[in-house]
Design a protein that fits this description.
One of its GO terms (molecular function) is hydrolase activity. By secondary structure, this protein is an alpha/beta fold. It has nine helices and eight strands. Helix content is about 40%, strand content about 15%. β4, α4 and β5 form a beta-alpha-beta unit.
């Protein structure tokens, strides 16, 4: 299994990161993607991934941290993508979060500029969304970007899911589907093509059902897979194999 989105570099894991990774390996979670969030954290990410063979990294500017944004951060991102060519798996976590006080015009500009960098470096993207599906789909359609990627923690409508899939994206499936009350998201995930799904935890955030209030962990990925298998009509092993292959297809540098 591959956890396509986990912030294992966050301080929440500083005391037991080795133990968490050992447990993941025992459970068959053999690759974990750590998305970037802000320029000041990129070096920490890269050094961490160089220390553990099962960790892979993406680099990007998350909309949550744009209050510290400076234009030279895009230049630095361009440099780091070149320096780590073949190792960096995606540009991300990038996107739009309209629940934040950050200027929406600035968010859209930085997102579009990061799409351009991903296009230039022939990399997929990992996309964050909140109250922003319409704007994201509009900008993706307008852009020359064509490398696809993952819509992180997808929770939109079936129409939005199909729009992203038509644009070459996979849908990141995490702890939300473990909650019976998440009827809309569960119904959508049951209907979209199996070829469009990848697994993720977003640890230490987005705890799964029965673990509310606790630190989320990539070791819970098998429980998310269990929930997905229960929603799908395909044989359980087909679901597991498809999620693994889908992730490799959209993030091919994982295998490097």
């Amino acid at each position: 299994m591959i956890d396509s989105h986990c912030h294992l570099d966050f301080p929440a894991f500083d005391l037991d990161r080795d133990q968490v990774l050992l447990k993941c390996a025992q459970l068959g979670v053999n690759s974990i993607v750590i998305p970037g969030t802000q320029a000041s954290m990129w070096l920490r990410q890269i050094l961490l991934c160089e220390s553990y063979s099962q960790l892979k990294f993406a680099l990007g500017l998350h909309p949550y941290f744009l209050h510290n944004y400076r234009t030279e951060q895009l230049q630095l991102l361009d440099q780091q993508l070149s320096l780590h060519q073949g190792k960096v798996v995606a540009v991300g976590e990038i996107g739009l979060d309209f629940s934040l006080p950050t200027d929406e015009v600035l968010q859209e500009r930085v997102f579009s500029e990061q799409l351009n960098l991903a296009h230039q470096h022939r990399l997929p993207v990992i996309v964050h969304h909140r109250q922003s599906h319409n704007a994201l789909i509009r900008l993706l359609k307008k852009s020359t970007f064509c490398n696809g990627g993952i819509i992180h923690a997808f929770s939109g409508s079936l129409q939005e899911a199909r729009a992203y899939i038509d644009l070459g994206f996979k849908l990141g499936i995490g702890g939300t589907i473990t909650y019976p009350r998440a009827k809309k998201t569960r119904a959508v995930i049951a209907q979209v093509p199996l070829s469009s799904l990848v697994l993720e935890t977003d640890a230490p955030d987005m705890p799964i059902n029965s673990k509310q209030g606790e630190r989320n962990s990539p070791s819970y990925l098998p429980l998310i897979l269990d929930a997905l298998q229960a929603l799908r009509t395909e044989p359980e092993n087909d679901v597991k194999q498809a999620c693994w292959q889908n992730t490799l297809n959209i993030l091919p540098n994982i295998s490097n």
